[in-house]
Design a protein that fits this description.
A hairpin with a 5-residue loop joins strand 2 and strand 3. Helix content is 30%, strand content 34%. It is of the alpha+beta class. The chain has a three-stranded antiparallel β-sheet with strand order 1-3-2. It has a single domain, classed as Gcn5-related N-acetyltransferase (GNAT) (Aminopeptidase), CATH 3.40.630.
């Protein structure tokens, strides 16, 4: 997932001339947060109760719960060296140098 997200970000900046990319991840979705961190995104804050998640309860019922979003941003300069770092680690270790 990190490699695909990085390739997409590089394409958006290089070919589509984007100057900023913004991501939103559910506060309890650590896998998505790790992808954002690995490609160099910076956490900018939390949007409280910003999303309704359709979630299964322990007894098997489905309920709608409000959840928070974490906002992430990515600028072209944030990508410097990220591709090399992913290649060195195989994309599977945590990104230790994030803000």
């Amino acid at each position: 997932a990190s490699e695909a997200a990085l390739a997409t970000a590089q394409w958006l900046f290089r070919d589509q001339k984007f100057e900023r990319i913004e991501l939103r991840t559910a506060a309890d979705n650590t896998a998505s947060q790790q992808v954002a961190q690995k490609i160099g995104c910076i956490s900018e804050g939390v949007l409280r109760n910003a999303c309704i998640a359709h979630t299964r309860t322990e007894d098997g019922r489905w309920v709608d719960l409000r959840t928070d979003f974490i906002i992430w941003s990515l600028l072209p300069e944030d990508l410097d060296g990220v591709g090399d770092q992913l290649a060195d680690t195989g994309g599977f270790t945590s990104f230790s140098d994030w803000n």
